[in-house]
Amino acid sequence: MATLKQGLDKRVSEYDYWAKRRQHGPEGHNNCSLWVLACMDERLPVDEALGIHVDSPAGGGDAHCFRNAGGIATDDAIRSAMLTCNFFGTKEIVILEHTQCGMLSANAHDLEKYFRDKGIDTDNIALDPTLPELKLEKGAFAKWIGMMDDVDEACIKTVETFKNHPLIPKDITISGWIWEVETRRLRAPIVGVGAEKRTLIPDVTSAPFGVKSNQPPRWK
Ligand SMILES: [Zn+2]
């Protein structure tokens, strides 16, 4: 039978390796060799939805997790995925979006107007002041915001974007999932034929939010 001292020796050395993982490159990958892209929404519990431990309890570390508005492919999401997939040993990407997303709640053109009415020139915005080379073409601001008409459609397009991106290795496993906030249920995204199988939450579009016109064509 192992002594407590032996158990503690093992625990201390394992924790030490965990703390210094990034010094080991791909060999020091996170527990699941996994990168998660999830919406920032407070009602989307990444650990519960995926059955993993991203950052709790201390010493967890199943995945690298990137959260943004919508859980969509943006330049910074691609930058983060590029780093973890090529240099930190990540072998799998999971995209996690959800029903009742705030990105369904308004039309991006109206959001752009909000800033224009305040006198902000949305055609000349420093997206990242530390990288002034990163620029939007004139008229692209509303599209950049990334509001959605349909969360299932956005999830599928986000998966495709990572699958086709030249900075993401072709052998990475990539999947997308929808968390139903109302029922705490995870399901695959569905569009077109079969969309009625969104059985519990049939309407995941912007319509219930009163959005009447289509978003700028980011997902088409
Ligand atoms: Zn959301």
Automatic annotation (TrEMBL):
<keyword id="KW-0479">Metal-binding</keyword>
<protein>
    <submittedName>
        <fullName>Carbonic anhydrase</fullName>
    </submittedName>
</protein>
<comment type="similarity">
    <text>Belongs to the beta-class carbonic anhydrase family.</text>
</comment>
<dbReference type="Pfam" id="PF00484">
    <property type="entry name" value="Pro_CA"/>
</dbReference>
<keyword id="KW-0862">Zinc</keyword>
<dbReference type="GO" id="GO:0008270">
    <property type="term" value="F:zinc ion binding"/>
</dbReference>
<feature type="binding site">
    <location>
        <position position="41"/>
    </location>
    <ligand>
        <name>Zn(2+)</name>
    </ligand>
</feature>
<feature type="binding site">
    <location>
        <position position="98"/>
    </location>
    <ligand>
        <name>Zn(2+)</name>
    </ligand>
</feature>
<feature type="binding site">
    <location>
        <position position="39"/>
    </location>
    <ligand>
        <name>Zn(2+)</name>
    </ligand>
</feature>
<dbReference type="InterPro" id="IPR001765">
    <property type="entry name" value="Carbonic_anhydrase"/>
</dbReference>
<dbReference type="InterPro" id="IPR036874">
    <property type="entry name" value="Carbonic_anhydrase_sf"/>
</dbReference>
<feature type="binding site">
    <location>
        <position position="101"/>
    </location>
    <ligand>
        <name>Zn(2+)</name>
    </ligand>
</feature>
<dbReference type="GO" id="GO:0004089">
    <property type="term" value="F:carbonate dehydratase activity"/>
</dbReference>
